[in-house]
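Q: Okay, next protein. This is Probable dual-specificity RNA methyltransferase RlmN from Paenibacillus kribbensis. I've checked the sequence twice, so it should be correct. Can you predict the 3D structure?
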Amino acid sequence: MKPFIYDLTLEELQDWAKNNGEPAFRGGQIFDWLYVKRVNDFSEMTNLSKGLREKLAEQFSFVTLHEITKLESKDGTVKFLFGLHDDHAIETVIMRHNYGNSICVTTQVGCRIGCTFCASTLGGLKRNLTAGEITAQVVQAQKILDKTNERVSSIVIMGSGEPFENYEATMTFLRTMIHEKGLNIGQRHITVSTSGIVPNIYKFADEDTQINLAISIHAPNDALRSKLMPVNRRYPFNDVMDALRYYLAKTGRRISFEYALIGGVNDQAEHAEELADVLKDMLCHVNLIPVNHVPERKYVRTSRSDIFNFQRILADKGINVTIRREQGHDIAAACGQLRAKHMELG
């Protein structure tokens, strides 16, 4: 299997050009064809010599994302199930907002984190995606938006998988996305979400980026979080919070906490009170997420009154909090649902 051309950063393409007897600027031309002109084949790179195009085709391949399923919501959300070269499948979502188009990308085929309310973990982890396979999702989305003269304005790395368990590929992807000679997505318009892989929270804090960090917390204490998120047994609640305090001290950037509200499990007044106490001294924002019903799971949605009561308690204690606007609710919007259905039928 040849490496994907999208696996390489601009600097790596420049090095490749030099190592193949070409001036470094040829790497920049290749990068431009990939991310500005967005070609589908090396033969389309017409300002490169035929020999160089043939050499590229010999050494690299384009990522093949073939569309298995496309679902369009009444609210404009579009969810894709893409097939990969090895017959695995991944999900990518285009979300339309009044401030622009956001792309939710996947970093792994499946997931091993094991959150008990999530469809992504059904079937476990199959493999990591390469940087190029993550990148191709955004390029594919941008090609779709090109048809209506729109652009990708923000990226959320919140699809299936744990980005910080595929750290190097995720960071390579991010460096490509923010490059001014490529898609040029503003760093503050990108959010990467983790379940709390402690060593890589420290590593990410030291990256010196403006990219936003979100943490899937889902519980205010160690015991309850371990029941909902088995990863908490490997990286306990207090260790995660210590890593986040390091991140705050190092970057000064606000952290987003994602909290899935599950009926009768983690959504009561005492949970809100405890969460507020834990977060009271942190620069943060809490995003409350009424849990999507997943047929394979037994959890139920929190009642509207309990959702608003949870929000009120946090707000009264000075915590910045919002309730996530639901999108794509009519098209199996929860991460992993579409893939799980495909696996079942396959």
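A: Here is a summary of the prediction. The first helix runs from residue 10 to 19. The first strand starts at residue 66 and ends at 72.
Q: Noted. On to the next one.
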